[in-house]
Amino acid sequence: MKDAEYLLVDEPRPGALERIVVRPMWPLLGSMLGITLLGWGWFLLNGIGMGSPTRRAEFGWVVAGVLGGYLILFGALAGLGAAGASGIETQSVFPYMMVALLVWKLFVSYRLQLLQRRVYEVYLYYSGDERSGMVAVIAFYLSSGPLRRLIPGEAILWLIPLL
Fold it and tell me: Which of 2, 8, 14, 1 is nearest to 123 (CA)?
């Protein structure tokens, strides 16, 4: 037993990406103000950099966020078909159906932030380095409009859950 180490199960083990670790609030703001999938990717990079013991759960939430977003989109499109068949003007109904998608993306983003917040506090206690993600959030916000305009009109509908 001379080689045994004392390990805490929930203790972060920072890796090579430790220099990019930020408070989980920043990826949350990035996913709210920019393109959601980029914000979720930032959460994953943040977890890898921290050596987060909840990395698998974070990845699971990102996958659930994408799949759930598409499920909501297909449900909204099916609802539009039913609304169109009953004579309701579908152009006025679609934005209201997309509120469910927005709420889902915010829920997943907030859940990711909650998962990383506890780990980040332990990470911060041991490393002591706190970095700001303000520049990245501003870049996410400023680039989201031009990136969305690059997508052709027909393809944008199928990318809504990721934007």
Answer: 14
- Tell me, letter by letter, the H, E, C secondary structure of the chain: CCCCCCCCCCCCCCCCCHHHCCCCHHHHHHHHHCCHHHHHHHHHHHHHHHCCCCHHHHHHHHHHHHHHHHHHHHHHHHHHHHHHHCCCCHHHHHHHHHHHHHHHHHHHHHHHHHHHHHHHHHHHHHHCCCCCCHHHHHHHHHHHHHHHHCCCHHHHHHHHHHC
Two tokens, residue 90: 């579908």
CA distance 130 to 10: 20
* Per-residue pLDDT in tens (0 to 9) along the chain, 163 residues: 455 565 555 566 666 677 788 999 999 999 999 889 899 999 999 988 888 888 899 999 999 999 999 998 888 888 777 766 666 666 677 777 788 889 999 999 999 999 999 889 888 887 767 888 899 888 888 888 888 788 777 777 777 777 7
